[in-house]
Specification:
Blueprint: E1 2-7, H1 14-23, E2 28-30, H2 31-38, H3 44-50, E3 55-56, E4 59-60, H4 62-71, H5 76-100, E5 105-109, E6 124-129, H6 132-140, H7 147-155, H8 160-166, E7 169-172, H9 177-192
Parallel strand pairs: 1-5, 1-6, 2-5, 6-7
Antiparallel strand pairs: 3-4
Length: 197
């Protein structure tokens, strides 16, 4: 089973690319979706213990948690110590399920792939990128996004140029969806050894 790792900085189009892999029948493990479900389940109690007031009605209050982290960025390490092991466990369970199904190719969508040294756990890394002005435009359209928040997120991510230098494959999402879709299909063909246009 070939394991591809997909990553890219905020606003680069990673989720769109991941969906395109899924549309081609590639099983995808989305770390963000895993975190989302953890924030409504297993991670709630430990996060409340570490960040008092950061949960409400049995779920993590992302807005309040973000506020506490923005006030004190050194707390990111504390949050990661809670969340990362749970995300890793979900990933291992996903891979075990896919091996049992004899899936030839799977995709791990890992936002902080290089930051968490996850490249050691995959066979090849796919980096999603786009022009900086397109990235900024996409990110600033997100609800609740501010210049400060954008700067804080970027400061915690490996720069795009560095990611591209380390990538085995690059998908540029600056163009139309069809262009991105074509790049995704080409990677799937190349990795699985399929012949195609």
């Amino acid at each position: 089973m070939i394991i591809l790792g997909l990553t890219g900085s905020i606003g680069m189009g990673k989720s769109t690319a991941a969906q395109m892999f899924a549309d081609l029948g590639v099983p995808v493990n989305d770390a963000d979706a895993v975190v989302h479900s953890l924030y409504q389940g297993e991670a709630v109690a430990p996060i409340e213990a570490a960040f008092p007031g950061a949960t409400a009605a049995g779920a993590v209050d992302r807005k309040e948690l973000s506020r506490q982290l923005a006030e004190n960025p050194s707390l990111f390490k504390k949050l990661e110590a809670i969340v990362h092991p749970l995300v890793r466990r979900a990933e291992r369970e996903f891979l075990a399920r896919q091996r049992a199904k004899k899936s030839p190719l799977v995709l791990l969508d890992i936002p902080l792939l290089f930051e968490t040294k996850a490249e050691d756990r995959v066979d090849a890394v796919v980096v999603v990128t786009c022009r900086p002005e397109i990235q900024r435009e996409r990110v600033m359209k997100r609800p609740g996004m501010t210049e400060e928040k954008f700067a804080l997120i970027l400061s915690r991510q490996v720069p795009d140029a560095e990611k591209r230098a380390k990538a085995d494959y690059i998908i540029d999402t600056s163009g139309e969806f069809d262009s991105t879709r074509g790049q995704v299909a080409a990677i799937v063909r190349q990795v699985t050894g399929q012949k195609g246009p």
